[in-house]
Specification:
This protein is an all-alpha fold. It contains three helices and no strands.
Length: 56
């Protein structure tokens, strides 16, 4: 196992996933009812991700 003393390890993909999960939890807790699939896609910025991948 690698030692983490004196340094930091950052997994940018994992950090982005944690941030999105947090945003989804906030949206779900603020909603009066279940989130629709469209609402979930909006929170997770699915349309933005598709536009970025289409542009590449």
């Amino acid at each position: 196992m690698a030692s983490l003393r004196g340094g930091t390890v950052q997994d940018h993909v994992a950090l982005a996933e944690i941030e999105l999960c947090g945003e989804l939890i906030i949206a779900a807790s603020a909603a009066e009812d279940r989130l629709s699939l469209e609402s979930i896609d909006e929170v997770l910025r699915v349309a933005e991700a598709r536009a970025e991948s289409a542009g590449n």
